[in-house]
Fold:
Amino acid sequence: MSIQGQLLEVTVVGCSKLKDTEWLSRQDPYVCLEYATTKFRTRTCTDGGRNPCFQEKTTIPLIEGLREITVTVWNSNTLTFDDFIGSGRIQLQRVLSDGYDDSSWSLQSKSGKFAGEVKLIMHYANAGKAQKPSKAEAPMSYAATAPVYNPAAQYAYPPYASPKSVAAPPSYPPTGGYPSSSPYPAAYPSLAYTPPANPDPYQPAGYPPPPMQPPAYPTTAYPHTQGYPPATYPPHPYPPPPQAQPGYPPAPYPGIYPPPPY
Structure:
């Protein structure tokens, strides 16, 4: 149930163990409550000191999604600005669920130190209505229980046919030496291996194995070498004949030394 627009009653009872901001006289505290745009201020408790009492009530309209109230305590001064004593946050989860909360909430100073406590009494009239349905409402209907599982039902005959009207599968005589496990003939030939009728006997090789002979190749000459003369040449004489040196006239009488006079 939404809390939007619902009213919350808050009573500021008083404070205890407040931090004292006065040196020569007793302080005059007051309390401020702030919830969204709603603000409330108690009267000033003159000479209230550290344990003032207020007993003031206010009503706060609630807003969906905002479930805390900010509380601040001040010391009222006549000639100067008011002194800040402490502040805290009031959580609303308990009062919204139970409808009542009278807890004391701690206050902290600006430095984060303990600055006292404030006591509030909160009432919420619409708590728990979402959990308690009215008597005029119709009772809740539950889903039907699932049927018990029966494995034989999936093999039952269809509703439009009786067991007598459904033709039974044909039966065939078994083939081979063993009875067939299926009443239907085999649609495809058997995939089992069948050896040949007269297989050649396997002859194991002797040990040690015979040496391998090189393959025989034809000795026919290649076509491009047929028809050519053999590569034979006459031998050269030895020693080779002397060669004439360049720049000298050839000798008119070879083999005669000394040459005859001219």
